[in-house]
Amino acid sequence: MALPSSGQISLSEFRTAFGGTAPDSVSEYYRGGSNVANNAINTSIPQSGTASFSNYYGGAGTTTRSLQVNMDYGYGNTAVGLTAQSSTAAPSSFGVSTNSLCYQPVFHAGTGFITSASITVQQNEDVSANSEHVLLYGGTSSSTVTNIVGRWDAGSSGGQGGGRSYSIGWDANGLINAITYTGGIYNYGIISFVTNNVSAARSSGYTWYGFRLKNPPSYSKGSEIMTGTFYNSNSYTQPS
Predict the structure, then answer these.
(1) Within 13 A of 206's CA, how many CA atoms are on the CB side?
(2) Which of 54, 115, 142, 189 has the highest local Cβ count within 10 Å?
(3) Which of 237, 234, 238 has the alpha carbon at shortest distance from 118?
(4) Sign of CA pseudo-dihedral 222, 228, 232, 238
């Protein structure tokens, strides 16, 4: 549970957020000590010396959770992820069809969390063009991950499908650095990176992110929409 972002905070709330034992003292809650992780969400908390309660605004303990997201069309018509965006729900499997959506649990980037990822966005042949095939959203809190940072569209080909791969990097504070093209496979021109809002995301201070996948409106052959870092069931350290 995150601490309040303003107003009064009590030492008992520190214990709830970070652990620790009563009677509480501020020295139990230095960043990088036994209770408070040295990560991107706790950067304002001192590592030693004098600490003000206001230094702890927005601080949080950590938990481990899955950030898995994947969806296919024409293979099994299945998805693993969420049907609506959330920072607390656990991914699960569900059936999908044309135009179905699948969301990744939103995550905090930066030191102690996630600083790099790789993705491959794909589309098969004999499949309708798909606008907003893959979206990467960003925001300043876990409840405001609604702004498009990256958008990939998929075209239509009767001859051959393909995909494009990208690396994504975040700095120590969780601000996105770049979405970099790293290579294509087969008919990679079928995938278009049409929106790159990395600069705006950095200047707006986005540190929370999440992908959304969308199935095409029709298909005769199958494909996974996006593979890479978040495709399999991996667990990551995240704010509790």
Answers:
(1) 26
(2) 142
(3) 234
(4) negative
Single-letter amino acid code for the residue at 87? S
Tell me the residue type at 238.
Answer: Q
Please check the confidence at residue 233 and state whether its pLDDT lies above 80: no
Token digits for 189? 């021109």
Query: Can you say whether the dihedral through the CA atoms of 99, 217, 75, 184 is positive or negative?
Result: negative
Query: Taking the alpha carbons of 25, 207, 141, 237 in that order, is the dihedral positive or negative?
Result: negative
Whole-number Cα distances in Å, 28 to 32, 41, 148, 186 = 10, 18, 39, 56
- Condensed to tens digits (0 to 9), the pLDDT of residues 14-60 reads 888 888 778 778 788 999 988 999 999 999 989 998 888 889 888 88
- Mapped onto helix, strand or coil, the DSSP state of residue 138 is strand
- Please spell the DSSP secondary structure of 179-202, one letter per residue: EEEEEEEESGGGEEEEEE-HHHHH
Tens-digit pLDDT profile for residues 71-107: 999 999 999 999 999 988 999 999 999 999 999 999 9
How far is it, in rounded angstroms, from Cα 120 to Cα 225?
A: 8
